[in-house]
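Team,

Forwarding the record for the chain on the shared tracking sheet. I've put the sequence and predicted structure together so nobody has to dig through attachments.
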Amino acid sequence: MKKLTAEFIGTLTLVLLGCGAAVLAGSGVVGQLGIAFAFGLAIVAMAYGVGPISGCHVNPAVSFGAFVSGRMSLTDMVRYWIAQFLGALAGAGLLYLIASGASSFSMGPYALGANGWGAGYLGEYSLAAAFLFETVATLIFVVVILGSTQSKAPTHFAGLAIGLTLTVIHIVGIQVTGVSVNPARSFGPALLAQGAALSQLWLFIIAPLLGAGLAGLAFRFRLLSVD
């Protein structure tokens, strides 16, 4: 229960602070760079805050990568997923309650920092570009996570490395998809926003899981393992 509570709180925090930067402060206040750092710093904070309890996956793709690599059981992965999706939904709900307190707020097709692609979404990148970016970016992200937390790595710095990786992924990819690399992060806002965000949610589940699975295989077959 401690682990699941930690995953719930960690994922809630990521969505509330990361998506919150985009919704509450992204327009002319902190900009794209500020949003990128908000996601990265939220992960750094949770890595040291709840990491000692649950490992701070706060991301179904990370848990899937850990499962494929052999570091996690199927039962534990499913339990983590439940906590993560519920945490993301709670984070999006809290963000909605805060954002709706402004008279200028409206629920658009990609409200609450929802991910997307195509016409009407940020850089208007194609489905193929969005899928490729999310797959490769998640692959890189999970490689850093699994690599920096393996037995011979300097694990005291793992949280910083993981957070900075998420930051640079956002710097590069916000205009492409808003950056998911995390099915739960996409699920919470999309479920509340409905419309286009919800209809495009499938990509932000499949592509991150694919990328994470490839990263997990690289460690399972010791291609990137120092052991």
